[in-house]
Amino acid sequence: MRTLGVNLSKVVVHIDLKGSPPKLAYLESVLPLFKDLGVNALLMEYEDMFPYKGNIASLSSNICYKEHELRQFITAAGRAGFEIIPLIQTFGHLEHALKLSEFNHLREVLLYPDSICPSKIESMTLIKDMLKQIVLFHNSIYPLKHLHIGFDEVFHMNKCAQCRLRNETDLDIYFNHLQKVKYIVKLWSPNTTVLIWDDMLRGIKLNDFEHRDLTNTEPVYWDYAPFLRVSHNNLYKYHKNFENIWIASAFKGAEGRTATLPSLRNRFINHVEWLKFIFHYKFGGENKIYNFKGIILTGWSRYSHMDPLCEILPVSIPSLVLNLLLIKFFQEGQIENAYLLESSEIFNRFLKNNVNKHLQCEDDISLENFETSSCTFNGHQIYSILEQYIFQNDEILDKFNDVKEGLFSLEYYYKLNHLNMNTILPAIKWCNESLLDLIATENKIFNLMLQYYDVLVVQEYVNYKFYDGKKKLIGLLKLLKHYYINHTWYRNPPHRYKFHSG
């Protein structure tokens, strides 16, 4: 029996470019896959990867996109039917700007480079310059329908002397800054709708929204946990004050700051829970089904500008494919009461075969233990070698801890000139072999990543991933060799020892 499915006019994939822009040729190569899976927009979080000019050129990284290359990509994406939604942070998460010497005086709190002071004229000049260049560039290619201005996780607000002199509440400062930023957008692009992350709105009472100009503004309610903590009360407040509401899930970047691979299970459950939640959603006292405007599948590359890289895009394609197919399943509404099914049943009965097809896998995939050995999707090689890295790293850590425990006895017996070479020599051998294996894996990852990223991104990624393991092994190896070389048995002929018979 066919029933009405979930109505989402926008299915958006978030491309987080923070300090790690994928090569545009690679991004263009995955557009047909995205199109086939129902994606109709890309949320491009530029941060330091937009080619800024003039007095804000220093905001751009040395590896930022070239203007002509970015123009070509946006043009190709537009022709393929994708809307490009730029995301520019304008309140919190401005580390890429506020870390610089020429802008660090604009921090709300001098010690923290995340939040900008909204009371300084220079702050608004910086934001205006950023938005102007972004808006004019995009409008020169296609009309800019939506622009995301961030506004999430403003950890420091109303703290500096200049803000406190205004004698306003945090809420007033927040909404006044929102109005100023919206005015800048409207100045350069009057028909553009502004999107904001919703988290700073969640604690606001319903009557606190009164007399606020929220026209042309739409909140994006985000929750990336496997089991949602979405508040009906917050949604109701947004419903009463905003024309539309978006939701946001995560296909990667939600497993921890240093995660290497996304958890297929966690990412799948996150999307299942969201789609069940919005299925035929009705607000209290209303009979009409509410249609959320769109879903943004976020794919964070870093938790913030100052954090290390987490899961990279090529190894997150399986998660993205799986969850886009899930959205299509709920949109089509071919199964009655699909929202009552368990996530495992949805996957096994309705999605597994299509996931195998899109990832080009000969063997059935599993949510619990995804094996890439039979898959040939673009990225399967680096996925496989990163799995090997995780196994090696875990094994090294376990063995290192075992050997480290034995170092206390080694140190004691070293002082007594009574070391057991049957213990120390195998440990040296293990250290040498493990270090060589780790370096070999590092080189494989480095070479594979060059297909997708600039060499500077690759260097940062592999150096961070392998730093701790190599440091542990090299340090342990030096210590073991020290004991071996300086041991009395090694320095003196064996005949000088006196052995006691039983």
Automatic annotation (TrEMBL):
Stretch forming the signal peptide: none
SUPFAM superfamilies xrefs: (Trans)glycosidases
A Gene Ontology molecular function term of the record: hexosaminidase activity
Gene3D superfamilies linked to this entry: Glycosidases
Top-rank lineage group of the source organism: Eukaryota
Protein name (Swiss-Prot/TrEMBL): Beta-N-acetylhexosaminidase
Organism: Parnassius mnemosyne
